[in-house]
Amino acid sequence: MSQISNAASCDTPFPQQKTNSTMSYTGLFGLVLAILIWGANWPVMKTGLEHITPLWFSSLRFLTGGLCLLVYQLAKGDVRVPRAADLPFLLSVGLLQMMLFTALGAIAMTQLSAGRSAMLSYTTAVWVAPISFFVFGERITTRKLASLLLGALGVIVLMSPAAIDWSNSAVLHANMMLLAGALCWAVCIIHLRYFRSHTSPYHLAPWQMLLAGTALLFVALMFEGRYSGDGSNTLWLALFFVGPLATAFCFCAVNLASTRLAASTMSTAMLGVPVTGILVSAIVLGEAIGSSLVFGAAAIISGILISSVPLRRRKIV
Length: 317
Hints:
With 317 residues, this protein is an all-alpha fold. The protein has helices at residues 5-8, 21-48, 54-75, 87-108, 114-121, 124-136, 142-159, 169-194, 201-223, 233-258, 263-269, 272-284, 291-308.
């Protein structure tokens, strides 16, 4: 899984247009499909990692996804070469979110369940509020404070000695990797919130994916050696799912939805990704859904809901 923040962020890549119900339903259908694919992506990655090492797997994911999206744009005659001013956004999304977030998550999943990995990766919102407050002086409202406290409570539950074996250093390090990956994603979201690129996120995406895939390729060669895939049908199916489908197609689907649906709808709907990941992992991989995962997930999701769902304005008659 890699949830692509510049596609799903509140700042949509294209100007908002007035849309009819048909266009809204189209966007909603694409969003639901992307959420289901991204949720299922976690158990698919877990399965794929049984046939290849994590850095090679992550590299091939973004190389295939980026090439698919670039070919799609070429076929439409809609390719944009990034400008020099886009370099910070290429590096931010390509290296921080795509490369580090995905690599840390893949390495962690060699030790952890797919469901737990999906949930801890979605603690991003826990990091966004304090970064916004301390770095950019953003005001912490009561709702944001409640969201932060609930998210932190969820992390504490998931990281408590009752939930994981603290004497197992490999498992402990894997959990910390997921939290570090979520922090990387949060920094990327903050960057996209306060600064805007010259080229749209849709046109930057294939270059960001190819940058992440190429960088991961060199890192894989350095730390994992020669190509480690076993050539099995399971591996190729997993690569097809995580690359062309979960990376290229889902980016386009969420990008389309973000131009046709409200930002609050997008933010709330994206909570379906970790929930889907937990449920599909339990059904397909037989992973247990323990009480700590249930309570931790409930706290984190509640916290995100509090901050993302807008308050209804009282109608004046």
